[in-house]
Amino acid sequence: MSKRRTRIVATLGPATDTPAMLRAILEAGVDVVRINFSHGTAEEHLARIARLREASRELKMPVAVLGDLPGPKLRVRMTGERLLTIGQELVFSRGEKALTEGDLVITEPEILDDLAVGHRILLDDGRLQLETARITPERVFARVTVGGKLLPNKGVNLPDTPLTFPAMTDRDRQAIAVAAQGKVDWLALSFVRKASAADDMRAEMRKHFFDAPILAKLERPEAVEHAKAIIAAFDGIMVARGDLGVEIPLECVPTAQKKMIALALQAGKPVITATDMLDSMRQNPRPTRAEAGDVANAIYDGTDAVMLSGETAVGLYPVESVACMNRIAIEAESHLREVDRPIAGPVEHVRSIDDHITQTVVELAAKIGADAIITPTTTGRTARLIARHRPPIAIIAPVPSETILRRMMLVWGVQPVLREESKQAGEDRVSAALKASFDAGAVVEGQRVILLSGNPVHGGAHLPTIRFVRVGARGTPEEP
Asked: Are the C-beta atoms of 213 and 189 separated by less than 8 Å?
């Protein structure tokens, strides 16, 4: 296992489409690849997933696939670039097609119904700014306050406008069908505003007989306000700072990031920190010092994963970007004990006995000097609850399938290994987990480990059991 425990997510795109480049970024340290359904065709997405699976098998490296749904993401629909000058009037048609030549059209045009005079319209992550001047039944007229070059398919943000759009769009439903066909390991929903979006998303997935853990992308003011409820409803979150930094005051983003990461940690659910982490590496082989600090601080905050977007999708230096992020993460992790940890002491909202037990196991491991914590798991939940405490020793999770193994690649510090499902009732699952860990090379003879199992006997009741053992010659448990 790599020394690095923070996960690296890399977005696939034209820059990584060749088999050689894909293999190179995996070997540089990628744990999860992101398929951005906001761009490209279904055929392109499925081809990228297929190439990734093939490369993963060839390299014998488990890699998870994260499908990122478009959500009600507003984008400008235009064929060529346009230069906007301060004071210029820009017109948006309120339908699917431009009413007159020169009108702009956006995806989800019904959202313009929520606009009012004086509301800001931000384009391209706020680089271009407009103010709504007047509204007619068919068109919205806006005055440019900050100009520049507008390119096709750039994003639109309405930070002053309370939005009433549904949690999922038709494009999301189409993307879910593609994600189901590609059997992605995680699925993320953009612009989540409330917890009920999780129910809508799972209901749509069931139509395709598709079961995968789901992430909420937190990038609206409402998401920050309802973060705890959203985290409870979803299986993890992404702090999507690009749109978040446009939707709320930029100076508020670092605090919001820290709060949302802490809430996810307390819930034992993975969190990705995303957007502009090493953005200058799209064009340069070396990041800025501020970007290096940004990655390190997200790790100090307690993030499970850090994400590369355009750096690997369309940048000139995708391999260098991954390698650089890997080095920054390793260095930051070597100083985790020197900074205040988000989880220190009891978790605030304990929900079950498992919360107490996993915390006790981490504390016990530190006191007795264990070399690793091994926890056989069917869904990965127990391993996630252990990982949230960020123990300095290995967390090994024997899992029953390749699917669960890949899903665990998003969780901080967990080394998943395959175990054979027992076919004999009454078999000792704890000893079997130790043997699976030994056979995978995750532990070696002579090490002392703590084993935690909720169901220690195959076919038996949920009776949480903790054992402290020494690894024997063939992976058998011996007295410590």
From this structure: no
Q: Is position 34 annotated as part of the catalytic site? A: yes
Q: DSSP characters for 193-231?
A: -STTHHHHHHHHHHTTT----EEEEE-SHHHHHTHHHHH
Q: What domains lie within the chain, and their CATH numbers?
A: 7-72+167-336 (3.20.20.60), 74-157 (2.40.33.10), 353-478 (3.40.1380.20)
Query: Is residue 306 predicted with pLDDT exceeding 60?
Result: yes
Catalytic residue among 275, 303, 358, 375: 275
Phi, psi of 305 (to 5 degrees): -145, 155
Instruction: Show Cβ contacts of residue 221 under 8 Å, excluding neighbours closer than 6 positions.
Output: 159, 247, 248
List 120, 217, 241, 384, catalytic entry:
217
Residues in CB range of 220: below 8 A, 6 or more apart: 163, 191, 192, 193, 243, 244, 247
- Structure confidence by residue, pLDDT tens digits, 75-92: 899 888 999 999 999 999
Would you call 164 a catalytic residue per the annotation? Answer: no
Per-residue pLDDT tens over the stretch 114-153: 999 999 999 998 899 999 999 999 999 999 999 999 999 8
Options 4, 5, 51, 75, the catalytic residue: 75
Q: Catalytic site residue 217?
A: yes
Tens-place pLDDT, residues 18-35: 999 999 999 999 999 999
467 included as an active-site residue:
no
CB 239 within 8 A of CB 271: yes
User: For position 422, what pLDDT does the model report?
Assistant: 66
Q: Which residues contact residue 261 at a Cβ distance below 8 angstroms, ignoring those fewer than 6 apart?
A: 239, 271, 273, 298, 301, 302, 303, 342
**Catalytic residue from among 7, 34, 120, 435:** 34
